[in-house]
Amino acid sequence: MTAYILNLLVLISVYAILSTTLNFIIGYAGIFSLAHAVFFGIGGYTAALVAMHVTPEFFVAVPVAMAAAAVTSLLLALPALRVRGEYFVAASLGLQVLAVTLFSEWKSFTGGIGGVIGIPAVELFGYPVYKPWQFLLMSLICLTIIIVIIRTLVHTSFGRSLKAIRDSESAALASGKNITVIKTLSVVLSSALAAVAGALYAFYMSFINVQSFMLDTSVLVMAMVIIGGTATVSGPLLGAALLMLLPSALTYLSFLPQTEIGSIQQIVYGMAMVLLMIFRPGGIVSSHPGGSK
Amino acid sequence: MLFLQLLANGLQVGAIYALTAAGFSLIFGSTKIFHFAHGATFAIAAYLFHFALAGLGLHWTFAVAVSATSAVVFGVLLDRFMYAPIQRHEGSFFTVFVASFGIGIVVQNLLGSVFGRGFMSVATPLSNSVEVMPGLYLSPLNGLAIVSAIICFVALHFFLTHTFVGKGLRALSENPELVRTFGLSPRRLSTYAFALGSLLVVPGAIFTAAGTGINPAVGHHVMLISLAATIVGGIGSLRGAACAGLLIGVAENLAMWKLGTQWSEAITFAILFFFIIFKPSGFFGRATVS
Fold first, then answer.
1. What is the DSSP string of A211-240?
2. Which uninterrupted H or E stretch holds B232?
3. In this predicted structure, what is the pLDDT of residue B196?
4. A85 Cβ contact list (under 8 Å, min separation 6)
5. Which positions ≥6 away from A153 have C-beta within 8 Å?
6. Looking at the domain assignment, is residue B207 inside a domain?
7. Would you say residue B283 lies in a domain?
8. Of the candidates B99, B272, B280, which has its C-beta nearest A274's C-beta?
9. Is A23 part of a structural domain of the chain?
10. Above 60 in pLDDT, residue B288?
11. What's residue A287's pLDDT?
């Protein structure tokens, strides 16, 4: 039972990192990306490769994973600079679909459909971290650091420029903001931090394959952000916890057919998205209830 | 010969994509609602056609009627009970998109639970392929799909240029304010747009159910394709959406000539990605709104 709860908590904190980093670009930069799972995946695969072929040291594998995601995220920044709204959603969808094909075809990097097996336990300064509670502590610390980084950034002039661009790009441009640099930086930062979640996930599962990095994951993370509440700190955390607890909570309702749990979970969060958008578009933790942002 | 075979398949698939994309483009162009659940309409129409024909054993004309009715009812219900309340409080593009996406997820999983998650297809005498030339197999369905797409487009063109509602829809896409001043209700026109747009998925849904087969995720795939076609063709241009749908269908199939099947969707999105970066307004689009 303890093992079960610990496992759930580790997964919640990994997804909380994803939702927090996605919220950074959705909530503050107004960039609605459906490609977040791509960077989750790149982080995971890169960390796995480094751990297997170079060193399982946390402070080597994670920075390399972040760098890899940061470089690839320029592919997402490119359309984000050109277009907004529906065009960008379509472009990020395109990137996500392309990435899934690449992940399942590029066998030397990702192991194809079979995935990467036997990722060694991560080491912190040479001490292996493999007990679940140690791992939980490590991922909670990562989550806290990431929240602090994003919170701090949002309250600096960089964060204010981001919000200005979100609300009106031409007004921000008119007041002398360098939109290209600010937008690119926010995408790069969000993707690099998402790679941390990927690395943690790869080390924790010690096996990864393309199944974890498909469009479904991007949608799930986006649902976490939206159901929790965009542009807030606690919203994405709450969203991650709720959506990760949902399948386990559903398994306790014994009258539901067990084979349909996956479907029922998706139906519940799909319905939640619809109802929230009609009645409370700001999400559960809404910064301005009833508002239309 | 493989080339001709792929080209023939591509034209059939392209005709289906063109119709579905035109439906999405009609709705999006006139009402500005990013109707992501358009794919769900497609899936519902396809599954109910299958159910009426194979499950209930109805004559095919009734099956088509069931499928068309369900598509129109679903589209209009969404417009009335989901999009209208959201738009009442100035819903942003994203609010609409999320709600629409949510309903797509719900429909996909409901269909999966009710009809099963595997591939299904209805065998009809029309789906049997005949070897026309050495190495080139065609079925009557190939031709029927293309012919019905052409008929639908001619009818749609006539409707939009010669009827009062059609002209109203075109006016709505140009200037909603003026439509209101003129005394027409944008809300009522929006219902027409949804009914008509949803009706346009029906031929595609039927030919897919009778041809390559359907699974609950088909709506998702179709939606991605029509979204790509709408943008590549230029938002608000039916002609553009139709041409782009055809182009994507052909490109997807010709890609199999050199690459594996798993790349076909990637090809579509590579096309879309480049259009968004280099020419966001598409083939026939007006100047892009940023």
1. GGGSHHHHHHHHHHHHHH-TT-SHHHHHHH
2. helix B218-233
3. 93
4. A32, B93, B94
5. A24, A159, A189
6. yes
7. no
8. B99
9. yes
10. no
11. 60
From the number of C-beta atoms within 10 Å of its C-beta (0-12, 13-18, 19+), residue B85 rates as middle
Whether A268 maps to a domain, the answer reads no
| Number of residues assigned to chain B | 290
pLDDT at A145: 96
Mean pLDDT on B265-288: 75
Residue of A nearest to B97 (CA): A86
Please give the residue of chain A at the shortest CA–CA distance from B78.
Answer: A274
- The values of phi and psi at residue A116, to 5°, are -105, 125
For A134, the domain range is 2-213
Mean pLDDT to the nearest integer, A10-38:
92
Predicted TM-score (pTM) of this structure: 0.85
Q: Is the pLDDT of residue B200 over 50?
A: yes
Residue B290 lies in a domain: no
Q: For chain A, report the end-to-end CA distance as a whole number of angstroms.
A: 41
What is the three-class DSSP state of A273? helix
CA A50 to chain centre: 21
CATH number assigned to the domain comprising residue B246: 1.10.3470
A101 contacts chain B (CB < 8 A): yes
In a domain, B273, yes or no: yes
List, as ranges, residues 28-87 from B with C-beta within 8 Å of A: 34, 82, 85-86
Using CA coordinates, name the residue in chain A closest to B87.
A278
The count of domains in chain A is: 1
Mean pLDDT, chain A, whole residue set: 87
User: Is residue A138's pLDDT more than 50?
Assistant: yes
User: For chain B, how are helix, strand and coil distributed in percent, rounded to 5?
Assistant: 75, 5, 20
Distance from CA of residue B22 to its chain's centroid?
A: 6
Range of the domain at B150: 2-278
Closest CA to B152 of B105, B206, B233: B206
Structure tokens at A12: 């919640």
The pLDDT value given to residue B91: 66
Distance CA B259, CA B263 (A): 7
Q: Nearest C-alpha of chain B: how many angstroms from A125?
A: 41
C-alpha to C-alpha distance for B18 and B24, rounded to whole angstroms: 10
Which of B11-15, B180-184, B257-261 is modeled with the greatest confidence?
B11-15
Helices A36-53/A215-228 angle, 10° precision: 120
